[in-house]
Specification:
The protein is α/β, with parallel strands linked by helices. The chain is built from 4 helices and 3 strands.
């Protein structure tokens, strides 16, 4: 079982407190289900996705930065002004999240359970989730 959480579960943005709270709960639920499934061969993990480029996020970016900017400039301005802790300094592409999900869903990750695995572009300022 895989749940998609968010960096907002750990680094709750002031403009999205409600979202952060729901994603924090998802991490707890994932860990709890992993404990419930202990010894069954079923793995349960959460993916902590960082700021990811989607249609909704593009709209969100343009709510916070100058709408007249071309996308690449708007993205850089958003990251600089609103997500300055990102080491990647760009939004993550959905395919980059999918790569981690594919790994965790594969037999290659058979010993990974109860984990919150980050694909956040280095946004969360921690060496552990």
């Amino acid at each position: 079982m895989l749940n998609i959480a968010s960096d907002s579960a750990i680094a709750i943005p002031e403009e999205m407190i409600h979202y952060g709270a729901s994603k924090t709960a998802l991490l707890a639920v994932s860990r709890g289900f992993a404990k419930h499934a202990a010894g069954s061969g079923v793995t349960v993990n959460a993916v902590i996705a960082g700021p990811t480029r989607t249609g909704g996020v593009e709209e969100f970016v343009y709510q916070l930065v100058d709408r007249s900017l071309p996308w690449e400039e708007a993205q850089r301005a958003f990251m600089r002004e609103h997500r300055p802790l990102s080491l990647l300094q760009r939004l993550i592409e959905p395919e980059e999240i999918a790569n981690l999900v594919a790994y965790l869903a594969s037999p290659l990750a058979s010993a990974t359970t109860g984990a919150a695995v980050r694909v956040d572009g280095g946004y969360v300022d921690s060496i552990i989730p």
